[in-house]
Amino acid sequence: MSVHLARLKELIPPPSKRKQFDWATAEKKLGVTLPSDYKQTVEIYSGGQFEDYLYLLEPDNEYYDLVELHEERVEAYESLWEWERKPVELEELGSRIIPWATTDSGEYLFWLVRSGWEHDSDRWTVLINEARGDRWEHFHMGSLAFFVQALERKVSSDILWSRFPLRNHTFQQFIHP
After folding, report:
1. Per-residue pLDDT for 52 more than 80?
2. pLDDT tens digit string along 28-39?
3. pLDDT tier at 176, thresholds 50, 70, 90
4. Lowest CB count within 10 Å: 39, 86, 96, 116, which one?
């Protein structure tokens, strides 16, 4: 278990119910090897909402499906980037983004996957896109490091909700019986 996952478990104790995930199928569809700390986090917390705001994406979720939202975002941005500026981080040939979280307000948190890094997810960094505009933020760290440091108020985003994180951290699990 990574130091960031251990810290997340201290900050927000995980629920007792767990789900199983078909990571091989999700990774095949995405064409990448997903970060191991992300997969461990999803396996421990499953689907749900952190801080009454942020949804961690997972495979095979009716509303917050990792693969489906990736496909949706790729299509949406291809159209948008005909008219809006593309983030400079994606100008490198072969670079792409994969969403790992979304928010109540419609912001998306992505992994930046540079060309040749598809199976080297320890090198992926975080890009955040505002809900209704072309503003992006880049954080030079992995998704779980970013999330934990945001909860600890060690890193902040000008795009995410000003009340994120909450003083008393919350998690609501979305597992159906």
Report:
1. yes
2. 999 999 999 999
3. low
4. 116
Q: Are strands 136-139 and 48-50 parallel, antiparallel or unpaired?
A: unpaired
Counting other chains too, the contacts that 16-20 makes at CB distance below 8 Å and 24 or more residues apart are: 17/46, 17/173, 17/175, 18/43, 18/44, 18/46, 19/43, 19/46, 19/47, 19/58, 19/175
Tell me which residue has tokens 């880049």: 138
As given in the structure block, the two tokens for residue 73 are 């975002």
E-strand ranges in 33-107 read 48-50, 54-56, 96-103
User: Does the pLDDT value for residue 49 go beyond 90?
Assistant: yes
Domains of the chain with CATH codes: 3-171 (3.40.1580)
Tell me how far apart the alpha carbons of residues 23 and 28 are, in angstroms, rounded to a whole number. Answer: 8
Q: What DSSP letter does each residue of 28-49 carry, written as one string?
A: HHHTS---HHHHHHHHHH-SEE
